[in-house]
């Protein structure tokens, strides 16, 4: 039981920081927050993603490229230019590392207006940090796993951040229905997106990239939106006026 609780908790916490902080805040700036909360959620992103921590800056740059070049050859992760989800992940990883280590210079329009914390970013990308987190997951499983098959869940923990990205980018541009014609292949994969925190309403999101609620129809439930709404009411963040 502790193993399953740990798996579900890690899945959803890691998903939350990806959709709330990396995607909706770092890449799109759908809301603002003061420096204390920006650092708080930066640190939470590092802790939640652990061994697969993604830099908010590199995530934001790649994601802005994705919106600009959606489903074209210049899209960093379109399923229509890779044979399978693993080759797509690998290609995305290479572009991510080039941007992260400043080996390529992204177009100026993709840069700026994202949270920066060099110390955490640099440490989070070291092998020491990644291996320490990985070891902690293994030790937890050694202590609490009651069945051998539970150890098969470990790779999910190691790669949680990129895995969520791959599920969303593969499925969200391949399977499901479309509310809007966005001149790309973005789709809404689920009616109730509890598995990926609203991220699989890709078709809605590409049409309305500044809209904080990814559900558009009354029956499309974006479970992250009520959390964001509450954080706004608590004045931890300030939602921007919707321009969409
Ligand atoms: Zn997309
Ligand atoms: Zn987006």
TrEMBL record:
Database matches in InterPro entries: Acyl-CoA_DS, FA_desaturase_dom
Q: Which GO terms describe its cellular component?
A: membrane
GO annotation terms (biological process) = fatty acid biosynthetic process
Q: Where in the cell is it found?
A: Membrane
Supply the Pfam families for this chain.
FA_desaturase (PF00487)
Superkingdom field: Bacteria
Domain (Fatty acid desaturase): give its ranges.
4-229
Q: Which residues cross the membrane?
A: 6-24, 131-154
State the Gene Ontology terms under molecular function. Answer: oxidoreductase activity, acting on paired donors, with oxidation of a pair of donors resulting in the reduction of molecular oxygen to two molecules of water
Query: How is this protein positioned relative to the membrane?
Result: Multi-pass membrane protein
State the UniProt keywords alphabetically.
Answer: Fatty acid biosynthesis, Fatty acid metabolism, Iron, Lipid biosynthesis, Lipid metabolism, Membrane, Oxidoreductase, Transmembrane, Transmembrane helix
What protein family does this chain belong to?
A: Belongs to the fatty acid desaturase type 2 family.
Q: What is this protein called?
A: Acyl-CoA desaturase
Native species of this protein?
Adhaeribacter rhizoryzae
Q: What is the lineage of its organism?
A: Bacteria, Pseudomonadati, Bacteroidota, Cytophagia, Cytophagales
